[in-house]
Write a structure and sequence with these properties.
single chain, mainly beta, six-stranded mixed sheet, 42 strands, globular
Length: about 575
């Protein structure tokens, strides 16, 4: 039988089209009246649901291919009924002149990615502007919110639904950030007028239960705060990078003291809510396991919130990104410019190691009715490309995604995009940006059908691995042969992606870890097995569930769910 021809020439040809089109693409936003046709492999938008019933203010991918989306319980009835409205309907039938009207609708929905079916879930307390982290056992820990929910911790799984832990939190958590630590605990940090942190589960030896964190006190502003939803990233040594306003520190959550201060990001522009930029920890590479870099993009000039709120002046938003390696001995910020200015953008790590920047506005700030000029064009950032050539403008959406929108990676490598509700309640008419209940999927360029011949398909993967263990992933390539052009361990990669909790322009706990490839073996025509080493330590990859993607010639497969066992857990 003749050997199938490699498909790398096709891949290189298409890649050259994209590179040549990138310069023209940056002009699209500047002249919307004269749209430029999209370049080859610029991505594609697909509508998954015109109406999911709620505005997806918060979004989390869960094991077994479910996506949880929810908004708030005090915005009035949603557009989806509870599966069992009986208890609510009975309460509504009892006259009570002093009580608010009973709301028999759901404010959280679960999307089954395999069937595209939606399932409503009741919420007992208000999770508006809350935070969350996926626990090592696959349960979602969700913390805080507003009014009757601000001191609640909640657990969610598709089988049990929401379970409230009343008064679990030692402080009111509204606009806080959760981060999964190396030991499997969750650090819950900040929130409005909360310059402290605590743990889940409770630290039984802690007295008092709250630890004062002066960095948040130092970075708050009297009229705008500009340090809410601080950006937190776990570093390979187990310390935590924290960014608020325009400042950054690295601290040890176990010793509960600031470890060291990093340089101020240049420009003097706040990057946290309500001047909401976004941030990611760039992919960790197996050849440099102790090295980490953080990217922070977008924001709004100081004073933007007050000007928009008080007199309707909407300042242009920020175009710059800062990149820093906090693990270096003397870290410095390297500044770059995005093709388009953006606030309220979502940064989503892709299995290829690239970053998608989507949603947001080019004027104003985060908050009710305070954003203008929606940015419809996603931008791809390639961190390993030479500086000056890292950004590429992709195909525009037709749906403005403003305040209270969200985006997250799914099992198929798509980016789910939903939400946008810059109003106190649901408002669908006579406003500039109506409440948005639709759910879209953006297909990055690697999902283009012209790459199907090199797209791998996972046949078998481990359900669970321990740190540093050697394991194998079996996959097939439709075209038969692996793409040429380099050693097999460069043509084939495996990446482990931690799913994020997305809200308010920040994907908490999202993470991409490259796995060390030992060898690639051919088992049959078009069938291969790649031998990899699991992440070496909990600092590199905290315990829990990951999406493992096989990436062949730059094109990822759909993912397999793999659980990384906590240290000391039984095999």
């Amino acid at each position: 039988m003749p050997t199938p021809r490699p498909f790398l020439p096709l891949l290189l040809l298409i890649t050259s089209f994209v590179a040549n089109a990138g310069a023209d693409a940056t002009a699209w936003q500047l002249e919307p009246a004269q749209p430029t046709p999209p370049a080859a492999l610029a991505g594609e938008w697909r509508l998954l649901h015109a109406n999911i019933g709620v505005s997806a203010m918060h979004m989390q991918l869960l094991p077994e291919d479910f996506v949880l989306m929810f908004d708030r319980t005090d915005s009035g009835p949603s557009n989806i009924s509870l599966s069992d409205p009986g208890p609510c309907a009975s309460a509504a039938a009892v006259p009570n002149a002093t009580a608010a009207p009973a709301d028999c609708t759901a404010h959280s929905v679960l999307l089954d990615l395999r069937s595209n079916a939606l399932h409503p879930y009741p919420l007992a307390t208000n999770p508006w502007c809350s935070s969350a982290a996926l626990l090592p056992n696959g349960t979602l820990l969700q913390t805080g919110g507003f009014s009757n929910g601000d001191r609640i911790a909640r657990l969610f799984s598709p089988t049990s639904g929401w379970v409230d832990l009343p008064d679990f939190l030692a402080a009111r958590r509204w606009y806080a950030t959760d981060i999964l630590l190396a030991d499997g605990r969750v650090l819950i940090l900040g929130g409005r007028r909360q310059f402290n942190f605590e743990f889940f589960p409770h630290d039984v030896d802690a007295t008092p239960p709250l630890t004062f964190f002066p960095f948040l006190d130092e970075t708050t502003e009297v009229d705008a705060e500009n340090n809410l939803y601080p950006f937190l990233h776990l570093l390979p040594d187990g310390t935590v990078f924290a960014f608020a306003n325009d400042q950054a520190v690295v601290f040890d959550p176990y010793n509960r003291a600031p470890l060291r201060r990093l340089p101020t990001i240049p420009g003097g522009v706040p990057r946290n809510y309500p001047s909401s930029g976004s941030s990611v920890l760039l992919p960790l590479r197996p050849e440099y396991p102790t090295h980490a870099e953080v990217l922070v993009c977008g924001g709004a000039p100081r004073g933007s919130y007050q000007l928009a709120l008080r007199n309707g002046t909407f300042l242009p938003t920020e175009r710059t990104c800062g990149r820093i390696a906090p693990t270096d001995a003397n870290p410095v910020w390297a500044m770059e410019e995005m093709p388009l200015p953006r606030i309220m953008g979502d940064m989503v790590l892709l299995p290829t190691g690239d970053v998608l920047i989507v949603n947001g506005a080019a004027a104003g700030t985060a908050g009710w009715e305070l954003g203008r000029e929606p940015v419809m064009y996603p931008v791809l950032y390639r961190p390993d490309t030479q500086i000056g050539a890292r950004f590429e403008v992709l195909t525009a959406s037709t749906v403005p995604r403003m305040y209270h929108s969200s985006a997250t990676l799914d099992t198929y490598g798509r980016v789910l995009v939903g939400g946008s509700n810059p109003h106190i309640g649901y408002v669908f008419s006579n406003v500039t940006y109506p409440t948005e209940l639709s759910l879209e999927a953006f297909l990055p360029p690697y999902l283009d059908a012209r790459l199907d011949a090199v797209r791998p398909r996972v046949l078998a993967a481990p359900a669970e691995v321990g740190y540093g263990e050697t394991t194998a992933v079996r996959f097939e390539v439709p075209g038969g042969a692996l793409a040429g052009g380099g050693p097999e361990d460069q043509v084939v990669r495996v990446t482990a992606v931690a799913p994020a909790f997305a809200t308010h322009s920040f994907g908490m706990n999202q993470r991409v870890v490259g796995l060390s490839v030992a060898r690639v073996s051919q088992l049959d025509i078009g069938v291969y097995e790649v031998e990899v080493a699991a992440p070496p330590s909990p600092g590199v990859a905290p315990p829990g569930y990951y999406l493992w993607f096989v990436v062949h010639a730059g094109v990822p497969s759909s993912a397999a769910w793999v659980r990384l066992r906590p240290l000391g857990a039984a095999t």
